[in-house]
Write a structure and sequence with these properties.
Elements lengths: L1 H26 L5 E2 L2 H4 L3 H7 L5 H4 L4 E6 L2 E4 L5 H11 L3 E5 L14 E11 H7 L13 E9 L5 E7 L4 E7 L3 H8 L6 E5 L14 E3 L3 E4 L1 E7 L2 H8 L7 E4 L5 E4 L4 E5 L4 E5 L14 H11 L7 E8 L4 E9 L2 E6 L6 E7 L2 E8 L1 E3 L9 E4 L2 H8 L10 E14 L2 E12 L2 E5 L13
Parallel strand pairs: 19-24
Antiparallel strand pairs: 1-13, 2-3, 2-5, 3-9, 4-8, 5-6, 6-7, 7-8, 9-10, 11-23, 12-22, 12-25, 13-14, 14-15, 15-16, 16-21, 17-18, 18-19, 18-20, 20-21, 24-25, 25-26
């Protein structure tokens, strides 16, 4: 009898211990605190204040427009009103096919002047067609991507246009209804644009030339200082997590703040000036998204109004595992290509299959107007740039894909930045700043 009582007592004790341990395990949250109610829900009005939406044509722009006139070339500065005026006028044109199996040359040899439009990266042909607002014809072209366009006046006094796909080594010719007289108006301003020349002369051995243009005279660019405007992390928590109420805060071992719903995670970096969003996937095989990464990343940023400044498409990459797109901040017609000597001021979006898996961006915007615009820096001419680059024997000019004036952002503190103009080159598939002081950089001034 006593033996049965002992077994019953032991069983009750074990059940009680099991219930207590289960409850403790269920409620245990080591060093993780729920977000305060004041931070968990962001009023819709404040969210709307953060939103900055753009049309696709506002973030997908040429990086250079070069006017050809005989054997002379002049570049329309990106900050010049003629730049956007010409491009936007072109996008309002109707298109029709002329020669979809053209053999070149590119740019086309014509008696009169022409305009070369250079994109920062290859643009999908169907995406480029979608930018032409009044084009009613459904054209099917035998090229996938477009790197450059060339406008010229044909023999029948109409404005025609070439599209070049550098990777596919193909060119097509289209007819536009761009008014001839209005195109001549841009040609008439040739002397007011910046004189440039190709780094390498047109190659007679190839029909398709993608020339790199550099200014023949020194360039003066402003040094700018800005107050910064912080962007609320609450906005991105509310936007990027499907259930903001389940988000928890914790501090990582390196001291950086993080927010997670158990799957997605936002990590703050550099004292909260930047954020990184990661949305991991656990499926081994992912169906590829039918949309191009440019379109997909644009829609992702636009969906939460993430265009806090003038960001423009800079590059994209695609492989079997991941697609990536980068949008660089453009200020005063110049891209910000470096921050304190590393990185760039950019929105970076990565996709795997159908899912956005990575998103990094600044958590601040620049004030609408710079504090001081009186300080101007004179930068060497393109010829001086080439001479600087050619000092070492290992420099190969054919590997030079871009040479531009850009800004380096110096972060003075969390509320104040300075933009310093410099020469930058895209060489060996990466951006490098070029210095001209003997005691800086490498033997050829590359950093």
């Amino acid at each position: 009898m006593n033996y049965e009582h002992i077994k019953t007592t032991i069983l009750i004790v074990l059940i009680t211990i099991s219930v207590v341990l289960t409850w403790q395990l269920y409620t245990y949250q080591p060093e993780i605190a729920l977000l305060d109610d004041t931070e968990r829900y962001v009023p819709s009005d404040s969210l709307n204040e953060e939103r900055e939406e753009r049309k696709l044509k506002d973030v997908l722009k040429p990086e250079q427009i070069v006017v050809h006139q005989s054997d002379q070339f002049a570049m329309i500065p990106r900050r010049d009103e003629s730049f956007d005026k010409l491009y936007n006028k072109l996008l309002r044109s109707n298109l029709d096919e002329v020669d979809l199996l053209a053999t070149g040359p590119f740019p086309k040899s014509v008696e009169g002047p022409g305009v070369e439009i250079i994109f920062p990266a290859a643009i999908p042909a169907d995406l480029l067609f979608s930018l032409f607002e009044t084009n009613e014809n459904e054209l099917v072209v035998p090229i996938t991507n477009v790197n450059r366009m060339f406008l010229y006046i044909s023999s029948n006094k109409e404005v025609h246009m070439q599209w070049l796909s550098g990777e596919e080594e193909r060119v097509i010719e289209l007819e536009t209804d761009f008014p001839v007289g209005e195109l001549h108006a841009f040609f008439d301003l040739f002397e007011e644009y910046k004189a440039v020349r190709p780094v390498i002369a047109r190659d007679a051995t190839t029909m398709l030339n993608e020339m790199v243009y550099i200014p023949t005279e020194p360039i003066t660019a402003p040094r700018l200082s800005f107050q910064t405007v912080p962007l609320s992390i609450n906005f991105y928590k509310q936007t990027l997590f499907t259930d903001p109420g389940s988000v928890k805060y914790y501090q990582q071992s390196d001291g950086e703040d993080s927010y997670t719903d158990g799957n997605r995670i936002i990590t703050l970096q550099d004292n909260g000036l930047f954020m990184e969003y990661i949305n991991p996937i656990f499926i081994e095989t992912q169906e590829r998204n039918s949309k191009h990464i440019i379109q997909n990343s644009y829609e992702f940023i636009n969906s939460h109004g993430g265009w806090s400044d003038d960001y423009l498409l800079s590059s994209w990459r695609s492989n079997d595992l991941r697609d990536e797109a980068e949008f660089l901040l453009d200020v005063n017609g110049y891209p910000i290509l470096s921050m304190d000597g590393t990185g760039s001021m950019a929105l970076n979006v990565s996709r795997s299959g159908n899912q956005i898996v990575h998103y990094s961006r600044p958590l601040f915007a620049l004030d609408h107007a710079p504090i001081d615009v009186s300080d101007r820096i004179q930068l060497p001419s393109g010829q001086e740039l080439l001479e600087r680059l050619e000092e070492p024997e290992f420099f190969i000019d054919t590997r030079l894909s871009k040479a531009v004036i850009g800004y380096e952002m110096i972060i003075r503190n969390t509320s104040f930045v300075t933009l310093e103009p410099h020469w930058f080159i895209h060489y060996g598939n990466r951006w490098q700043k070029v210095t001209f002081e003997e005691d800086k950089g490498g033997s050829n001034g590359l950093e």
